[in-house]
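Records of this kind hold a single protein each, on a pair of labelled lines. With that in mind, the following record should read easily:
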Amino acid sequence: MATSLADLDDLRELIQDTLNRSDLSASVDNWIALARIDINSRIKVAAQETTASVAITAGSTTSPLPSAYGELRTMTYEVDQNDIRELFLGPISPITTDQMSANPGYPRYFAVTGDTFLWDQIPDASWTATCLYYKAVPEFDFSDGTDTNWIMTAYPNVLLYGSLMSALAKIGNDVRAGIWRTFYTEAFENMMDDDKAKRWNGIPRMRSGLT
């Protein structure tokens, strides 16, 4: 049995050893993929935060999303050193875009459509926006057994028990299901507690002013 999760092959081996069912080996990668999707739907932690440059191109109402884009925190662009503008998520329709086309200028709002940002106004110049966002836990390259990611390195139990929970749809009412569910919940709670400690540890508490 694998004693650590250095890479994808280690995770596969541990899942198979835990299930102790040789007939299920072909499904393991599907359960890992489903676990990753479930994890992405649940977390927003500091370890996911990353920045990327987004090109705002004159005359174009769209720009590609950054790699593994999950959810935006902030996005700004510098018109000049004294004019830094923030872009906000807002309702944008084709009608809005058509109306803006006659008066190109500075984008103020954006929507996400497919794998692109859609600006509310056609830019009349080109700028580079700085995008701070939550990066989704990346998909595994199942053709490469050495593939890994940050959550496997820092919280392998989240991936392990998430995968085992995904397996239940196929293996049925396993007597260990309750234990796996408990361990999955605890693994998530530990990860979120660690995140709170990273974000808030050392910040002085505000006094209420009451005596």
User: Anything to note?
Assistant: The beta strands are 49-56, 62-64, 69-80, 83-86, 88-89, 109-113, 116-119, 127-135. The chain has six helices and eight strands. The chain has a mean pLDDT of 88.
